[in-house]
Amino acid sequence: MSVSTAPLAALGRAAARTRPALSYELFPARSDLSFERLRDTITQLEATAPDYVSVTSRTGHGNLDRVLELADHVLGETSLRPLVHLTAIGSTREQLTAIVGALLDRGVRGILALRGDQPEGHDPEADEIPFARPLVELIRAVERERTATLAAGRVSVGVAAYPHRHPESPTAQHDLEVLLAKERSGADFAITQVFFDPSAYCSLVRRARAAGLTLPIIPGFVPATDPKRLARLAALSGVEPPRSLLEALAAAPDDAARRRIGVRHTAELAARVLDDGAPGLHLFTFNSHADALDVLETLDLDRWSTPTPGDPR
C-alpha cells in the first residue's frame, strides 16, 4: 500500500467549511538558548493568527518557572493568548490553587485541565487531586473567588478527549462518561489526543453528541514527518500510525521527501475531519514551526487573510 498522492484540491470539493479555529502546542524552553529559538518559532506561528497557543507543563510542575516564562512572553510580547496546561498528579490541592491564582494574576484566561501522566510507583499525596474532573472544579472555585478582580470575566477551561481508548481505561464508553463528567464540572471544550484514522474522531463526536455532550471537540494533529517521533507517540498512547505511512516514510530517499509525505498525510487527515464538521485543528508543534506551517499551507484554509468589507468571514 502507498500513502495517497491525490491532489489535495479534491478534498476541498465537500461543502464549504466554516472558518475553523486554529491553535498550536508549545513546550517551555529548557534553557535560555532554546528559549531564543522558541521565540522565533512563536513569531512564525503568530503570523497565522491562531486563536491561542497551549503551553505544556510537566507532571508535578517541576518546570513551573519555565511555564510562567513562556506564558509571560506570549502575554507581554505577542498578540497571542496562552492556554496553560495544569496537571493534577503530583500536586496538592493547595499547590494547584496557588498555581491557578498565579496564572490569573499574570493575565492567563485559558487553562487546560489534565490528570497528567502517572509516574511509575507514584505514591499520591494525602491532598492530591487524582483526576481532571475535580481539577476543573478547583479552577472554577478559584474563578468564583476572584469574580470581582476578573471584572466578572470567565476563565476558559479545556480538557482532553480520546478518539481511541485511553491506555488505562477499561472501555471507550468509560472514556466518554469521563468526558461528560468533565463537561458537567465546568469544562468549555476538549482537545483530542493524537489519532490517524478520521473515523476514530468522527465516531467519538457522534457518540458524544448522542450521549448529550455539547462542548466543542477539537482534533489534535502531529505533523507525521518523523518516524522516531511517531514510534514514541505510539508507545505512549497506544495509537499506531498506519503501516502504509510508516512504509512510505521508511522508503523516502531523504528528509525532504519524508517531510512531503508526512505533511500531505496530516493535511489529508485534517481536511477529512474538518469536512465532517470539526470546529478547528490543534497542531502539536514540538517547538518547530516549519512542519506545522507546511500542513496549513497544504490545507489552504484561507483563514488568516484580511476580510474585505462586506465579507461575512
Gist of the model:
It contains ten helices and eight strands.
How are the strands of the largest sheet arranged? 1-2-3-4-5-6-7-8
Tell me what portion of residues adopts beta-strand conformation: 5-15%
What integer value in Å does the Rg equal? 20 Å
Return the domain count: 1
Query: Total helix count?
Result: 10
Q: Whole-Å distance between the termini?
A: 40 Å
- The tally of beta strands, per DSSP, is 8
Q: Spans of 5+ residues with little confidence (pLDDT < 50)?
A: 1-17, 303-313
- Biggest sheet: strands, sense, closure? 8 strands, parallel, barrel
The CATH architecture: Alpha-Beta Barrel
Structure characterization notes:
This protein has one domain (8-117, 126-299): TIM Barrel, CATH 3.20.20. The chain is 43% helix and 14% strand. The chain contains ten helices and eight strands. The protein has helices spanning 32-46, 64-77, 93-106, 132-145, 172-184, 198-210, 227-237, 243-251, 255-275, 289-299, and strands at 21-26, 52-55, 82-87, 110-114, 156-161, 189-194, 217-221, 280-284. Strands 1-2-3-4-5-6-7-8 form an eight-stranded parallel barrel, surrounded by five helices. Helix 3 (93-106) packs across helix 4, helix 8 (243-251) packs antiparallel against helix 9 (255-275) and helix 9 (255-275) packs across helix 10 (289-299). The longest helix is centred in the last third of the chain and has 21 residues, at 255-275. The N and C termini lie far apart (40 Å).
